UniProtKB/TrEMBL annotation:
Pfam families per UniProt: DUF179
Protein name in the entry: YqgE/AlgH family protein
Organism: Ornithinimicrobium faecis
Highest taxon in the source lineage: Bacteria
Membership in a protein family: Belongs to the UPF0301 (AlgH) family.
InterPro entries: AlgH-like
Length: 191
């Protein structure tokens, strides 16, 4: 995607890491939650941690989408957690009162201080992320120009994907030359 083709906001899109993103984001898939002239935020969708959700939010453990662990959302504010949920049917008039803040395309953030029994009947999927990915003004745009990320359309289940290799799966489904990169190996010496 060239700078001229970039939409004004990438919110709702998925960033697929190239080898230029650096070690933290190696083979990452990041859902952009917010993007404007002041910067961008997102969560890394494919970095499960070993810690079960019950280690920090025991009341939410029975309601999270498998595998039931926390996910490393990014390197920013790793002492905080956010819940990303799917809301069937999209925007419901009463979701704000339930602690659900709609984002886009049936996805929302959930207030993890809300009682799960009140929220759970309104949601279909739930992942809890520790920290988030953040870019200052113009930083993401520079990384895109440098070739650090591929921007692709999000599919509804991407945030709750259960495959061991979401990075590869997202690339494989592309209907262009990006699909060829799915077989890129981290260890070319093994070819």
């Amino acid at each position: 995607m060239t700078a001229q083709e970039e939409p004004s906001s990438l919110a709702g899109q998925v960033l697929v890491a190239t080898p230029l993103t650096g070690q933290f984001f190696e083979r990452s898939v990041v859902l952009v939650l917010h993007h404007d002239d002041n910067g961008a935020t997102g969560v890394t969708l494919n970095k499960p941690m070993e810690a079960p959700v019950r280690a920090v939010l025991p009341d939410w453990q029975p309601h999270v989408t498998p595998p039931g662990v926390l996910f490393q959302g990014g390197p920013v504010q790793t002492d905080s957690a956010m819940g990303l949920v799917s809301v069937p049917g999209g925007v419901a008039a009463h979701t704000e009162a339930l602690g659900i803040s709609m984002l886009f395309g049936g996805l929302a953030l959930v207030d993890l201080d809300a009682p799960p029994p009140v929220v759970v009947p309104e949601i279909a999927g739930l992942r809890i992320f520790v920290g988030y990915a953040g870019w200052s003004e113009g930083q993401l745009e520079e990384e895109l120009i440098d070739g650090a990320w591929y921007v692709v359309e999000r599919e509804p289940r991407d945030p709750f994907h259960e495959s061991a290799d979401l990075w590869r799966d997202v690339l494989v489904r592309q209907r262009n030359s990006l699909s060829l990169l799915a077989n890129y190996t981290q260890h070319p010496e093994h070819n």
